[in-house]
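Entry, Tuesday afternoon. Goal for today is a structural model of the target with flavin-adenine dinucleotide bound, before we commit to ordering more compound. Inputs were pasted exactly as handed over by J.K., no edits. I checked the ligand SMILES twice against the vendor sheet because last time a stereocentre got dropped in transcription.
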Amino acid sequence: MTATASASASDTTADTADAVPAAAHFRFFTLEVLRTRRLGHSFLRVTFGGESLAEFRSGGYDQSLSLFLPVGEQEHTELPSTDEDTWFGAWRAMPDGIRPVMRSYTVREQRRTDGGEVEVDIDFVLHGDSSPASRWAGRAAAGRRIMAIGPAVAENKSVRFQRPEGCDAVLMYADETALPAAAAILDRLPAGTRVKAWFEVPHEDDRLGPHTLADTDITWIVREKAAGAAARTERVLSELRAARLPGAGAPYAWLAGEAGTVRAVRRHLVQERSVDRRAVRFTGYWRLGASEEQLLAEAYAGKAPSEDPTSEL
Ligand SMILES: Cc1cc2nc3c(=O)[nH]c(=O)nc-3n(C[C@H](O)[C@H](O)[C@H](O)COP(=O)(O)OP(=O)(O)OC[C@H]3O[C@@H](n4cnc5c(N)ncnc54)[C@H](O)[C@@H]3O)c2cc1C
């Protein structure tokens, strides 16, 4: 198991990163909280710094990374090993209650300050205190240190958005967990790119309009508070069914969010709208009722069915 494994992606589209051996694409970083800022109702932006970020190379778009977050009363993340060949076994062997949780998040932005230091923003959805990552973010304070496996080269497999040549429109579905990734993608799309996006959020105040040069038509879907899984998905599908797709028939679709809804949106596009399945990039960012440990355990046991988006975790 190498450092690349946790920043995993089972790629269905060709990537351009093959020139560099995969293990060199990712490495451990120490991230120190510099400040936090509340965005909208559900989001907290945590800005990280630290010397090791000098080597951090986000590829932009939906660049993800794996965070190791302390549990219980621990202030900082401590891992027994960050060696590429031994960290995984050493981390797994740590006792429950001490072992930091590993969670996937998105690099919303990497930038260099006037003083030459690298800063990285990550936007956390606060969805309750009983979930370790959400709980950690809600208590994040300047000076706290965590660890991450992140990109050491900009062209790496954790950038999943790979628009093929010849595509004439971009279709996007994102729920709140994937809104930071969607916004980072829209940041980069050139002027004139036709985009139709469906963004599903829990609260009116979460409609954080992305800044983009692209020609973007966004449908915001504010979820009913007590809606169950089937009702959530059905609401999204009804918005999709009512929509006219842009372009002349060669769209690229990028879908990310709750796994069940992502799967249903993909099926709609492929089966009801005849979108080429090879032009659909879909990733389950989380699954209702399952923690990331459970999803990882399924993936390691090879139980995640290949059509299930969570098999990308
Ligand atoms: C590639 C990738 C990029 C991601 N980027 C981001 C990001 O930038 N920002 C972000 O906030 N999330 C992001 N996520 C999703 C995030 O990893 C999950 O939401 C994760 O489960 C949060 O961990 P936790 O410890 O809070 O909850 P867990 O312990 O994993 O889950 C506990 C319970 O909470 C539920 N749950 C998990 N997430 C949510 C949620 N958002 N709302 C309601 N219930 C939830 C689970 O179904 C489970 O029942 C990303 C995921 C992936 C795979």
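The chain has seven helices and twelve strands.
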